[in-house]
Amino acid sequence: MSNELPTVALTRLLEGARYEVMPTATIADTVREHVPTTVPVTVTAAPGKGLSATLDLATTLADAGYRVVPHLAARMVSGRAELAEVVARLKEHDITGVFVPAGDADPPAGPYHGAVDLLRDLDEIGHPFTHVGITGYPESHPTIDDDVTVQAMWDKRRYATHIVSNMTFDAEHLATWCERVRRRGVTLPLLVGVPGPVERTKLLGMATKIGVGESLRFLRKQRSVFARIAAPGFSTDRFVSRVAALAANEALGIEGLHVFTFNQVEVIEAWRRRMLDDAVASRSRPR
């Protein structure tokens, strides 16, 4: 395959974008109302809510016709027996993909201290999913050195089908990180985590809906997100266009967008449709 034009890459990324949502009481109805079933939906896992909230929402959306990717946070799973039960439940609802981060549970619920431990057990019980995502950290992990996260990606690569980056804001930094990952011999396709164009007040509103403990954790983790989304000069439109320019270079292996919606899916879907219409229109203009 030859390198694409940036506008072609942008269209491809927007058409294949997937949305990350958090399991709150009303999100299933909101997704069904505003998100077409052609858009894959990933469901986060939070220690304060338990894995059951993730699985309940994932199976509900799967039954409604969505391609759903639940987060199986390793540190929230008590062991192989629970893992086998989770796998069986997801297969009953024709869910074929999962995302496996380590998660934030401290202490862990069982023997899985990191994602690779759970991934090994998934492999040993028959590798039941056709799509398995692992984490990447172009913006650096708050508590883990970059060299360690890149090494962990290498360790997990044989169990996975793609990498999902955490939220990133800097296209130049993203390009450098992608090149570094590829030099290390990690060839898995990459989904780039991008912030949806959500207002700061809506981010704060999201925090109030997810429980006191989870809200505090959310606000701590997203403090820099608030600052950077609200910073003068940052534009999701411009940033996604820059990601598309990188994606046009096939050597970087950028396959798609993972959009952090903060549950503002109506806003995000309107944005995606507008961006997609603009990209298609720009390709049809005479040059």
Short description:
This protein has 11 helices and 8 strands. By secondary structure, it is an alpha/beta fold.
The helix content, as a percent range, equals 40-55%
Distance between the termini: 24 Å
Oligomeric description of these chains: single chain
Which value, in Å, is the CA radius of gyration?
18 Å
CATH-derived architecture: Alpha-Beta Barrel
What would CATH call the class? Alpha Beta
Count of discrete domains: 1
Based on secondary structure, the structural category is alpha/beta
Count of beta strands:
8
Rounded mean pLDDT is: 87
Strand order, sheet with most strands:
3-2-1-8-7-6-5-4
List low-confidence stretches: none
The count of helical stretches stands at 11
> Strand share of the residues?
5-15%
The run of helices and strands is HEHEHEHEHEHEHEHHHEH
Here the CATH topology equals TIM Barrel
Largest sheet report = 8 strands, parallel
